[in-house]
Amino acid sequence: MRLFAGTQWDQPPRCERCERLESECKCPPLPPPPPQRVAPAKQTARLAIEHRKAGRSVTVVRGLPPGDNDLPALLTRLKAACGAGGTIKDETIEIQGQHLDRVRSSLAELGYKTKG
Ligand SMILES: [Zn+2]
User: Fold this and answer.
1) Closest to 107 measured CA to CA, from 84, 74, 76
2) At what angle do helices 100-109 and 71-82 cross, to 10 degrees?
3) What is the mean pLDDT of residues 2-19?
4) Which of 36, 57, 66, 78 is in the most buried spot, having the most CB atoms within 10 Å?
């Protein structure tokens, strides 16, 4: 009789998903984990009002790299918070009109630090 027979140590390794022996497991490989992103609290968004042609002004958000942030989701949130249109240009979010306060508080709700 083997030393660990009948104890949990006697179990050959099994797949946690299908509970088959690992050598018989047919589970598809797990998708890769999402990329590690920098937490919002460790990022500082730089806010500014910029003036464009025809007297239009926009509120711009810089300093949030697309690799660490879901910029399209942020844009959607900021547009809703400001009740304004907006767009993403390169790594900058632009909201139409002057909405520094609303952009600042919306980003703060998500944990971002802001400057400007
Ligand atoms: Zn499996």
Assistant:
1) 74
2) 130
3) 73
4) 78
* Of 110, 58, 112, residue with least CA distance to 82: 58
pLDDT of residue 114 exceeding 70, the answer is yes
Looking at residue 18, its pLDDT comes to 94
CA of 4 to the centre of ligand 1 (A): 25
CA of 17 to the centre of ligand 1 (A): 5
29-68 burial, b for 16+ CB within 10 Å, e for fewer? eeeeeeeeeeebeebbbebeeeeeeeeeebbbbbbbeeee
Q: Is the pLDDT of residue 8 over 70?
A: no
How many angstroms does the Cα of residue 31 sit away from the middle of ligand 1? 14
Task: Give 14 Cα–ligand 1 centroid separation in angstroms.
Answer: 8
Pick the CATH number of 33-115 from 3.90.1200.10, 2.40.50.90, 3.30.780.10, 1.10.3720.10: 3.30.780.10
Residue 104 C-alpha to ligand 1 middle, in angstroms?
47
